[in-house]
Amino acid sequence: MSSMAAEGYSRKRNSYSWLYFMLPSIAIMLVFFIYPVFLTFFYSFTNLALTGESARELKFVGFDNYLHMFKDPTVKISIWNTLIFLFGSAVIGQQVLGFFIALLMKHKNKTFRRVIGTIVLAGWVTPEIVCALCLYSFFGDEGTLNSIITSLGIPAVTWLYTVPMLTIILANIWHGTAFSMLVFQAALDDVPSEVEEAAVVDGASRWQVLTRIIIPYIKETFTTNMMLVTLQTLGVFGLIYAMTGGGPGTSTTTLPIFMYNQAFVNYQLGYGTAISLLLLLIGIVLSLFYTRSLK
């Protein structure tokens, strides 16, 4: 009986042996992910501040930060700007442009792919702040773009003041398209060439091959890439802050910019963390939508 009990205990201990190997990963997740999220959630219900009377004594204020947030007209403007920036630079820009660049390089020789790939990758490997300064110099009043159009006899345009949202959208497209290009390159290389050749032999046009064979074959890649690019774009801060600072006015104030201004310019950390949770909620909703689309 004791032998059977010992055997049962040994078997039970072995069944939980995997937990010992997972403990380091669990500890890292708790310290660097779960704890910061919990702390952010807690601070969003407080009057945490860097200066003033609120900085002397931390108080629980309930849903005051959230009520103030939804009454603040700048929050609505920031959400709208975030969605425009997301749709313009991620959905239309990086996704579509990345796919067509990858399609352009499909079946091309190694030299062509190497040259085009290097040009596109240059924007991706460039640090965000350097990318912002490059594009600021390009769109500035005395920048490269105005030098080109004035040489053609066209009056100069104050791009960063007239169309600031367009400038940051184009900047983010240039900076991030390479990621989508690499994802679609890998997906397009997996499309069986025999199927495409058979369709061409049967009289299919290039457009029919693209819309009826290639795109349906890699449709899951579109959804996965869209989710990754969306989450990356939601967190873009340095690019916008260096180019426009969220201005002029609030015309390019996205949620990350507004959150920074409230937390570190106005020193209202409690209110800033509440805004960060709104940004997190938007990311979760979009991720769930994309995940559902995959099914």
From TrEMBL:
<keyword id="KW-0813">Transport</keyword>
<feature type="transmembrane region" description="Helical">
    <location>
        <begin position="21"/>
        <end position="45"/>
    </location>
</feature>
<keyword id="KW-0472">Membrane</keyword>
<feature type="transmembrane region" description="Helical">
    <location>
        <begin position="115"/>
        <end position="139"/>
    </location>
</feature>
<comment type="similarity">
    <text>Belongs to the binding-protein-dependent transport system permease family.</text>
</comment>
<keyword id="KW-1133">Transmembrane helix</keyword>
<dbReference type="GO" id="GO:0055085">
    <property type="term" value="P:transmembrane transport"/>
</dbReference>
<feature type="transmembrane region" description="Helical">
    <location>
        <begin position="159"/>
        <end position="184"/>
    </location>
</feature>
<feature type="transmembrane region" description="Helical">
    <location>
        <begin position="222"/>
        <end position="243"/>
    </location>
</feature>
<dbReference type="InterPro" id="IPR000515">
    <property type="entry name" value="MetI-like"/>
</dbReference>
<feature type="transmembrane region" description="Helical">
    <location>
        <begin position="269"/>
        <end position="290"/>
    </location>
</feature>
<protein>
    <submittedName>
        <fullName>Sugar ABC transporter permease</fullName>
    </submittedName>
</protein>
<dbReference type="InterPro" id="IPR035906">
    <property type="entry name" value="MetI-like_sf"/>
</dbReference>
<dbReference type="Pfam" id="PF00528">
    <property type="entry name" value="BPD_transp_1"/>
</dbReference>
<dbReference type="InterPro" id="IPR035277">
    <property type="entry name" value="MalF_N"/>
</dbReference>
<feature type="domain" description="ABC transmembrane type-1">
    <location>
        <begin position="80"/>
        <end position="290"/>
    </location>
</feature>
<dbReference type="GO" id="GO:0005886">
    <property type="term" value="C:plasma membrane"/>
</dbReference>
<feature type="transmembrane region" description="Helical">
    <location>
        <begin position="79"/>
        <end position="103"/>
    </location>
</feature>
<keyword id="KW-1003">Cell membrane</keyword>
<keyword id="KW-0812">Transmembrane</keyword>
